[in-house]
Amino acid sequence: MKKKKVDEVPKLRPLKLPDHQVRKLPNGMTVHLVPRGPLPLVAVRLVMRAGSAFDPLDRLGVGDFAARLFRRGAAGMSADQISDTVDFVGASVGGFANEENVIMSLSTPSKHFEPMFELMAKVLLEPDFPENELELARRRTLAGLTNDLDDPGSLADRALVRATWGTHPYAHETIGGKKDITAMTRDDLKKFHRERLGPSIAHLYIVGAFDLDEVMKTVERTLGGWKGGPTEGPIVPSWEGLARPGEVLIVDKPEQTQVQMRIGGHGVRRGHPDHFPLVTMNTVLGGGFTSRLVTEIRVKRGLSYGAGSSFDMMSVAGTFTVSSFTRTESINQLIDVSLAEVKKMKERGPKKEELATVQRYISGLYPARLETNEAVSGAIADVVHYGLTDEWISEYRERIAAVTVKQATEAAGKHLFGGERNIVLVGNAEALRSKVEQYGPVTVLKPSELE
Amino acid sequence: MRTTRSKKTTPTLPPALKAIANSVIEATLPNGMQVRLLPSDAVPTCSYYTFFRVGARNERPGITGISHLFEHMMFNGAKKYGPGQFDRVLESNGGSSNAYTSNDVTVYYEDFMSEALEKVIDLESDRMRSLQVTPKMLESERQVVMEERRLRVDNEIGGLMDEELSSLIWKAHPYRWPVIGWMKDIENIKREDCLEYFRTYYAPNNATLYVSGDFDPKQAMALIKKYYKGIKPGPALPLVHDAEPEQKGERRAEVRHPAQAPSLMIAWRGPNGTDPDTLVLDVLQYALSVGQSSRLTRSLVFDQELAVGVSVDWTWRFDPGSFTVVLELKPDGDPKKAEAALYAELAKVAQHGLEPRELEKAKNNLAAHLLRELATNNGRAHALGTYELMLGDWRHGLALPIQYETITGEQVRAAAAKYLAPERRSVVTLVPLSEVAS
Fold first, then answer.
1. Between vectors from CA A262 to CA A260 and to CA A267, what angle results, nearest 5°?
2. Is the CATH number of domain B251-433 3.30.830.10?
3. Within chain B, which residues score under 50 in pLDDT?
4. Peptide bond between residue B262 and the one before it cis (omega within 30 degrees of 0)
5. What ipTM describes this predicted complex?
6. How many CB pairs under 8 A join A and B?
7. Quick check: A10 and B261 CB within 8 A?
């Protein structure tokens, strides 16, 4: 008798984690040091809890705008001088905001670490915000906001943020809107810099090929004297729920022969106890190339080139989104298949074999997410920012592997949307409206309303 | 069969690059397949790249897009692993895959946990040996590719302009059609075309394999030999004739499409990838557009504010390629002014060359870029493989910083004067139709 061959599961090799040291400066700044080779490169990331969620309502985007301007004039150096100094050695320096943080980053060849770090510190501590640079940035940002309206994918994402978060601070566009950018003054930027940034809320991550003692001396010399700013990071308020549940939003682009689709609903905050069951379950639903959504939408029906689902998780709340696109005439098929797949997963969960496949998939590839200095600094920064522990990284693969079908099914039932969801479409509204009224009340927007 | 550990490295390589060079193990299988192993135990994963020397360049009118459509078909089943199995088996072994097609090459890769190496060799050799192209899978994949074309070209302004630009630069060479192909051709490619394509171009003697990551090289080489052994070499490849006539003057075209702002794509015909001038143009590209202090960014974006963004693309190709500048304008921007200002900046370089500091800055950035490319298993396999296909040997890729060091300001000046001449350029202007008018 032929014995059924058991598919052998390869065992996980241990993950060699680089040594992570933490020092606290007297001014309150926390320094995380991760020396690792072999390439002579260093990545620096400075994270401050001052992201767009905390921007005042009449100056949305102020943090991102200010952070981008830091390097356009600081400590008496002009923008050209700073750029030339950084570019000359093949380094890069920049600042930007996301929903919760303002982040400065530096990437440099190891041999230029000291002068580059000194420059980054100057740019952070003493930005001049020259008037001419402010005006220039204002004109460029406004032009960029308008030009973005040509990209159907980013229009869809922008419309979804509105339909989802409504008046919650996570609805704040990180770069602000036309009205905010037009009104931005030099005083707004200086106020932001003075009041919302400071060493007590700053975490500095340095990862790469460097000498630990030398680097600490440089950090203490340049940032040890940094003072002021908030003593505690601000808190994001809790979320009441979808701003426009059940509605259908169409952003009208009459020339489009293709429709971008997003279906959005509730997710979970980062670090939620259901994290690992949810991530595993979602990979079955809409993760890799063999997910149910890709199989049903792309492989079986040829409706689209791409399809997927994802959880976006932040400190206090998160979202779950199904994304895809198709030719205008197939939009009903695309929406129906997407909703049916989510419903099926919500009611019955993943199959045992499906779960086993994605567990190996996620675990097998996890170490590749920690290959570059930038990736390591990002992963550790997330652990710190979301109040997790180092085991989040070192035991990630084991925690994924431990998820059971029962846990994944329960998590799907609890968190995937049922009736509570909204639909965003970007395409030809005239052709779409009658087709999609069956999914809920339809509102049509012009792209310029999202500027 | 020959297996050698690389010893021919240039002694002047910096230590980090030298260590990579010394780690490379090379072999040529009896069926002609080139194998390169790059062991490194930094993380317990591997990357597996298969490069085929075939792309849109090897197509003909009527079957444009077949290289790319074929790339999709490579995931739709072979003899041992049937339809849908490739990614399913790979993912269940802790891996993922992707592929891309360019004008010159088609490239497949997998990232996976080290333990799955034999399975990946099995999967890849299976489809090289015995790919199945069933009518059903071909029809379904054709629809997917048509949707991809709608995404990347028909509904994407950059895609529309790029397509217009290529057919302006090249009159006779296959670089004139888009890699994704013309819609009608995608609709009409036959199964027989695909089968012939596979027999001709997907033979082991047209393939180069790169494996990087945490594995035992002896064991890996033995497995590769075992699995690829039975695959027979293919016929000599049909030559691609470069029948491109000399360009006699500037060429211009307009794309009228709903858009918020005008923009420009301007291309000059350059040399091929192995021409010595190619490296000089690399330096020029970096000096013009990499970093906020680069020439064009500083002048057109910050000083004159004629553009909101500038990028320069200089992609090495088997046959003479194009040096392309893209100018993104403001909604009320004036394309004529922006174009004139660009030519004025380029004329300065053609006349006076670069400042010594600018030259050194470009070289430093090229060297730093190479290091960053080599930071991951995937990046190392991709970079060295690409260098081998383009330059004939991966060693030339690692030695690039040394090559760049020898380039003089005068060489850059002369290259700018020679290649960025008005009679060599093609210009595509996007003329926006307003939201209401559309």
1. 160
2. yes
3. 1-2, 9, 436-438
4. no
5. 0.90
6. 211
7. no
